[in-house]
């Protein structure tokens, strides 16, 4: 494998990334930022991407990069991509006091001309609390709620609702919350009974009408990251 100093990113790629509204960064195998677009600079609250390019995570002067535990997790993710370049990783990142809203970071392998993995590309999307059919219904995206919008569902049930509305299966939710699949299934049935519905689509509609789809449970308000890859047998985890 070539040394990282030989990694040259085509200007057409960096110029395209720089036009994107979503934050994007290219990182080498030592977690050194090769290129960050202006949107990432705004996320990090630094004057420009020159304050990010060429720096390792611990060298970035941004509140988002101050926490050592977070930096170590990010490096572990980068290494996982290098060790298994057939996967992508997605992380739900929540950093109170460092960013205005949660975001989802997708990490994918960066290959050279010989199909060798020499780093990773990170694409960030701010967490959206709407589904495509919201536009059909004429609704705009809303902000996340930090206070439970009602008492019909308790906090533990709201944790399940939050993950279920992100498209997770009962098994995946069980893995994230360290509960059994049977417990999640029973909880879902109790919530169906409370809502007076029989199907998931009806339950989602019930939650949306009462703003439960916008509620971010307290469990996820501390610095946590929800990770999952894109394979069919993906493992989900909450650090």
UniProtKB/TrEMBL annotation:
<protein>
    <submittedName>
        <fullName>Helix-turn-helix transcriptional regulator</fullName>
    </submittedName>
</protein>
<dbReference type="Pfam" id="PF00196">
    <property type="entry name" value="GerE"/>
</dbReference>
<keyword id="KW-0238">DNA-binding</keyword>
<dbReference type="InterPro" id="IPR000792">
    <property type="entry name" value="Tscrpt_reg_LuxR_C"/>
</dbReference>
<dbReference type="InterPro" id="IPR035965">
    <property type="entry name" value="PAS-like_dom_sf"/>
</dbReference>
<dbReference type="GO" id="GO:0003677">
    <property type="term" value="F:DNA binding"/>
</dbReference>
<dbReference type="InterPro" id="IPR016032">
    <property type="entry name" value="Sig_transdc_resp-reg_C-effctor"/>
</dbReference>
<dbReference type="InterPro" id="IPR013656">
    <property type="entry name" value="PAS_4"/>
</dbReference>
<dbReference type="GO" id="GO:0006355">
    <property type="term" value="P:regulation of DNA-templated transcription"/>
</dbReference>
<feature type="domain" description="HTH luxR-type">
    <location>
        <begin position="167"/>
        <end position="194"/>
    </location>
</feature>
<dbReference type="Pfam" id="PF08448">
    <property type="entry name" value="PAS_4"/>
</dbReference>
<dbReference type="InterPro" id="IPR036388">
    <property type="entry name" value="WH-like_DNA-bd_sf"/>
</dbReference>
């Amino acid at each position: 494998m070539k040394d990282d100093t030989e990694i040259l990113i085509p200007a057409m790629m960096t110029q395209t990334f720089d036009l994107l509204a979503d934050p994007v960064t290219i990182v080498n195998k030592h977690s050194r930022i090769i290129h960050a677009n202006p949107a990432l600079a705004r996320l990090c609250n630094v004057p420009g991407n020159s304050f990010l390019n060429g720096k390792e995570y611990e060298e970035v002067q941004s509140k988002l990069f101050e926490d050592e535990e977070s930096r170590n997790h990010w490096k572990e993710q980068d290494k996982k991509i290098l060790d298994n370049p057939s996967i992508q990783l997605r992380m739900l990142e929540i950093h109170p006091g460092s960013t205005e809203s949660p975001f989802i970071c997708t990490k994918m392998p960066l290959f050279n001309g010989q199909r060798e993995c020499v780093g990773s590309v990170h694409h960030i999307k701010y967490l959206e609390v709407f589904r495509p059919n919201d536009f059909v219904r004429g609704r705009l995206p809303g902000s996340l709620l930090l206070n439970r919008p009602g008492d019909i569902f308790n906090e533990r049930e709201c944790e399940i609702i939050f993950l279920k509305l992100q498209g997770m299966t009962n098994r995946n939710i069980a893995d994230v919350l360290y509960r059994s699949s049977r417990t999640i299934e029973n909880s879902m049935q109790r919530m169906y009974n409370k809502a007076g519905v029989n199907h998931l689509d009806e339950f989602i509609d019930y939650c949306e009408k009462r703003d439960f789809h916008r509620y971010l449970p307290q469990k996820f308000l501390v610095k946590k990251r929800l990770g999952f890859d894109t394979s069919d047998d993906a493992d989900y985890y909450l650090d």
